[in-house]
Each structure stands twice: as structure tokens, then as C-alpha cells.
Amino acid sequence: MNEVTAFWILAAISVIGALVAVRKRNLVHGVFALLVFFAGLAGLFLLLLAEFIAVVQILVYAGAVGILILFAIMLTDRVTGKDAFRVTSRGSFWGAIIALAVFLVILLPTIREIPLIENATPKDMIVEQSSVKELGTKLIEPYIVTIEVLALLLTAALIGAVTAAQGGRASEKGENTE
Amino acid sequence: MNWELIGDILLATVPLLVIFPSMFALTTWVERKALARIQNRIGPNKVGVPLTPYGGNLSLFGLGQPAADGIKMLFKENIVPTGADRLFHLLAPILSLIPAMLVLCFLPLEFPWLNGEQNSVKAFMLDGAVIFFFAITGLNTLAVFMAGWASRNKYSLLGGMRAIAQMVSYEIPLVLSAVVVVMIVGSLNAAEIAEAQAGWNWYVFQPWGLAAFVIFFIAALAETNRSPFDLPEAESEIIAGYFTEYSGFKFALFFLGEYIAMFAISGLAVTLFLGAGGGPGVEALPWLKVIWFLAKVCILIGVMIWLRGTLPRLRVDQLMGFAWKFLLPLSILNIFIAGFAWHAKKANEGTAVSVIVWVAALIILYAAAKGLDHVNRAKVKPRTYQYGE
What we know:
The structure holds two protein chains of two kinds.
Chain A: H1 3-23, H2 27-47, H3 51-74, H4 92-113, H5 122-125, H6 131-140, H7 144-177
Helix pairs in contact in A: 1-2, 2-3
Chain B: H1 3-38, E1 49-52, E2 56-58, H2 65-75, H3 86-103, H4 121-124, H5 129-138, H6 140-150, H7 154-185, H8 190-196, H9 207-223, H10 235-238, H11 248-273, H12 288-310, H13 316-347, H14 351-376
Antiparallel strand pairs in B: 1-2
């Protein structure tokens, strides 16, 4: 059992999860298949020694995004999962073409630039410092301004979302009490 | 095959699988006994060792109760509702147990039989152990939802939705109160956090640490669906919440998962605030570390049981308001206080400074808590009832 075996197992889990997520008519089943895909992806990141990205993958995608989608489903009348959508395959042709285009134009050149795994001995790939610590130092030292701006932007977006969601009702409420 | 590695891994993980479930069995007995005493009852006292030579049945204060319960659970009929989603109905209890068991690896339990380079617990001492802990415990929510949804029962679904809302809300103060410790230690590694508190340098003895510990403990109660935050399984409102339709061994798995999650989160609280394995005599006898760690976990569990017997359940709106309007601002404020305290201490060492820091921090926290309480306190008006005619 080495890294390659682990890779194939995790890759199979991810691909099967993704396929089931797309093909399943039952929405809730689809979401859980998507979560399996996220978990497989987190495993792949862990295999690449990117433990922070792996944990964020679990925390943000499997945890937060999964719950968000489930909440959204709960608010529809498809909760029961019985009369789920008919998955129409009308757009599948163009979807396949776009996916192929993305693969050829963006992914393939990137993959070709990276040295093959056989050439890079694993010892070269192991970083001295752990990835979490390095990431933390990088975020604080050179990229502090970027982080702050991003944080401000996200806060503004959050407040904006709350205001947009509440705006109408708040004024109505005010009228009612008067 | 690297047999030595496999042996090490077994040495590190099997104790976790033995210690915590057996602690679970004992805790169920302790909880029933303690709750009974609080409610002026006796609790289980009959089941002991059957067929003993003198007198037939040796009842050791009802200590045989957990074993009897376990056997009963195993042999009970497994009922699946007709409308239920059979696959998810089966998967949900398993999925609720897995994250709870998994995070036990991240606790800095230093077993004496693991030493030096071959310490495979070190393999789990990832540099992001604390984040890993929170990420994986967060998956428990999904299991709860799965159970609620798969049962095809309105009460189950309501319980599941309540559980999700509650767990998502309380995860924020939980993580933010842990952030304080991570910030001060400068590491997310559980072993390093434990090391930084060696020699009675526990973070609960710091003003910000005390506040963070209290917030953490309250949020942990909510996160594990313990009373007074046990709304997802509120018997008087929604039968048993998400596990209404579960019986037999599946129910036992849920029960086990819930208690293991309690142990895990108490273990994290011990790691972050109560000095992990630190205690009297650890320098001379390093194996005492495991004992102290588990003892502290047991004390926290004891407090949880005590609270369950003491406090009434919250209302849904109170629960949400408490998390978002009280705990969240307080934990954010606490992060600032920890930063200031750290800088003040770093600037000039001395008892005077630490006394000032203590007093100032407590005043600020107290004022903030009072103010938030005042702002959030519902304006109670006499209710008007309208009866049907």
C-alpha cells in the first residue's frame, strides 16, 4: 500500500461521488454524494501534503456548503425527495464541449508544465516547515494588506446581504407598530 | 507491509477504542445515578452480577446496568419505517459515530507504551490538529440531518433542522474561543498547546482564558446537544427529535456517538484550557499524564451531568439569540483582550502588571456581558390570548 494505491482509491471515490451527485434524481442523495466527492478531494489534498487545504476542504465544503445546500433544499417542497426533478440532458452536449475546452485550454498546459511525479523524489516535495505554519507566516507578512482588504470586502458583503434580506420587512414592521 | 508501523498504529488507536467506549458505559450509569439523586430518586440499583454463589444476585449499586442495556440494545428489533429511506436510515448512525471516534486521535493523550520516534500518536499530531478537530466534528451535523430526513417523520425532520441550526450557530463561538489559545501559543498543534501549559501554566488561570473556557464550555454543551441545549431531542416537544424512528442497535450507535462526542469535546477543552495532562507529580511519573487527562475529562462530564439535572431547557429563539447576540460578541471581544494582555505582559513582566491585566480584563468582560444581557433581554409584555369562539 503506497501513495499511488491511495491515490487511485481516493480518485475513484471522488469520481464516483461526483458522477452520482450529477446523475441522482433525489436531491438529498445528490447532496450527500457531493459531500463524498468533497471528502475524497480532501483526501487527495492530504496525500499531496497540503493538510491545511485538506482541512479547509472539509470545513468549508463538506461542512458549510453542504449544510447550506441542505438548508436550501429544506426550504423547497422537494424535501421528501420523492418527486424530484427530471434530469434533462438537453444541455449535456454543450456542457461536455465546455468541459473539454476547459480541460484542453487550461488544465492540460498546466499539467504539462509540472515535472512528472517519477522525476521528483518525494523527499524534494516535503517542505521543511509544515504547510500550516508557512501559510500563516505568508498571510501575515507579505499579504497582510490583501487579507485586510478581503476581510473588509467580505464584511461589507455580509452586512449588505443582511440589509438586503431584512430591508423591506423592517420598514413594514415599523409601520405596524405605529 | 510494514508490520512495525501497523503494530504502532494499533498500539495508538486500540486504547482509544477501548477506553472511551468503556467510559461511555460507565458514564451512562453515573448519569442515571446522578440525575436520580438530583431528582430525589435512587436510580438503577438492581442489576449486578447474576448467579453469584451466596444470595444469588450480587448488585453492585446497579453497576451491571450498562452491560444489561447493551445486551438489550443488541437484541432489540430493528424497525425501519415503511416510508423511510432505507440506505440513509442505516448510514446515519454510523456517520454520527465516525467523526466522534476520529477526533479522539487529535487529543494529546500520551500513553506510556508509546515512546520516542515510534509514537504514532505523533502522526495524528498534525500541525493543524485543532482545525482538523473542528472540521471533523462539524460533520456530525450531517449525520443528524441524515437521520432526521431519512426517517420520513415530521418530528424527526424538525429535530434534524433544529440540530443543524443549533450546531452551525454554536460552532462560531466555540471556534472563536479556541482561537484565543491558538493565538497565544502560536500553534494549532495540540501537543504544542499541551506543552505550552506545562507546570501549572494553565490558560484557565488567565483572565481571557477563563472567559474563553466558559464560552467554550457553553458552546460545547450546545454542540453536543446536551441539556440545557437539547432542543433537537426535546422529549416534550418533538418526541425524541432526529432519532425518533430509531431502535435497537442503531439507537445505541447514536447514543454512543453522542457520548463519544462529549468526551472528545471535553478532551479538547482540557487540552486548550486545563493544561492537558498536567497535574501534580507528572515530572516524576510521566504515565500520570494520561490519568490526569482522563480525570479532567471526567470532571467536565460530571459538570455536564450536573447541569442537565439542574437547568431547564431553552426556547428556540432564546437559544439562537444567546449564540449570536451574546456569545459571539463576547468571544470576539475576548480575542482583543487576549491580545492586549499578551502585549502588556510582554512589555514589562511583573505581578503588578498581571494584577492590572486581570482586573481590567474582568471589568471589561463583565461590563460587556452585562450590557449584552441588558440589550438582549426581551421586553416582557403581558400576553394577549385569543380564544376560538
